[in-house]
Write a structure and sequence with these properties.
Length: 306
């Protein structure tokens, strides 16, 4: 099978390309910079301009669209890549004689906060990032008459090579302080290990129903302090103490740090909500990796991952 993967140089993309190559698939990676992708044929292109898309999609049997911005200076910055870039990809695929199946890796941020969010719930994103990912979903639906598109909404994704979520956990464990933004009270999150996500993306590409939206997780609603305690165990340290940060303080800090840092106003808009979990989705998928097992493996050095 011939796969095109966008976002192949990212955290999820590196794992997905490696898995596809190990399974014997031919992989083409759409790459914006000069970097080559191990295990894949590299084609230079840019979703923000559409450059290289025609060459990248040519001959593909499956497309898994991971590329996207998680930080941007303006709402337009998110939309230009996450919404319009997805629309450009759909347009390139729609021009083929037989468009391949397209899996769009959206985000639970597109659905919005809440406990046990279902795929049929009305989306209510609270961040510019979430709204831009939902815009990408709309682009798929607009092209549904030509492109067999499938939406997958993962929650927090972690694993070896993660440069966003795991570093926050490690810092919390080492300092002994686990920050929680907003009013006191429990925080619940869904998670999925990157290897399980890659399995689910390939399953969706093969067996997903065109037009469907699928939620994914490891099947558990995790308390924030339990996640941190599992990380502490993996690191051989004591669990950190939960510390609540007032919303006004967090937002002021985010505005000072800037919109392209890990703690930015858009991220604070999400962190203010105490629950980001999803119910078991319709995709016939069974996760293999528990949180404790996943964190134990992920927090070991991984010299072979970028």
């Amino acid at each position: 099978m011939r796969y095109l993967v966008t976002g192949a140089t990212g955290f999820i993309g590196a794992h997905l390309v490696r898995r596809l190559a190990e399974e014997g698939h031919h992989v083409t990676a759409l790459v914006r910079g000069e970097r080559n992708v191990r295990g894949a044929q590299t084609i230079r292109g840019d979703l923000a301009t559409g450059a290289g898309l025609s060459a990248a999609v040519d001959g593909a049997d499956r497309v898994i669209h991971l590329a996207g911005l998680t930080r941007a200076r303006t709402p337009q910055g998110y939309a230009e890549v996450n919404t319009e870039g997805t629309r450009r990809l759909c347009h390139a695929l729609a021009g083929l004689p037989q468009p391949p199946r397209l899996v769009y890796c959206s985000s639970l941020a597109a659905a919005g906060p809440g406990r046990l969010r279902h795929e049929d719930d009305l989306p209510s994103p609270v961040s510019q990032y979430g709204r831009s990912k939902l815009g990408g979903e709309h682009a798929l639906h607009e092209a549904a008459d030509r492109v067999p598109g499938i939406v997958v909404r993962p929650p927090i994704v972690y694993g070896p090579g993660d440069r966003e979520f795991l570093p926050r956990l490690v810092t919390a464990v080492r300092t002994g302080l686990l920050p929680a933004v907003g009013r006191p009270g429990p925080r619940h999150y869904s998670l999925i290990h990157v290897d399980d996500l890659c399995r689910a993306l390939i399953l969706a590409a093969d067996r997903g129903t065109p037009g469907a939206t699928y939620h994914l997780s490891d099947g558990t609603e995790h308390l924030w302090q339990d996640i941190a305690a599992a990380a502490a165990t993996a690191l051989g340290r004591r669990p950190p103490r939960l510390v609540h940060i007032p919303a006004s303080v967090a937002m002021a800090a985010a505005r000072t740090l800037g919109r392209t840092t890990a703690l930015n106003p858009d991220k604070v808009s999400e962190l203010l909500h105490p629950a980001w979990t999803c119910a078991t989705g319709r995709l016939p998928f069974t996760p293999h990796i528990t949180l404790r097992r996943g964190l134990t493996a992920a927090l070991r050095p991984q010299p072979d991952m970028p």
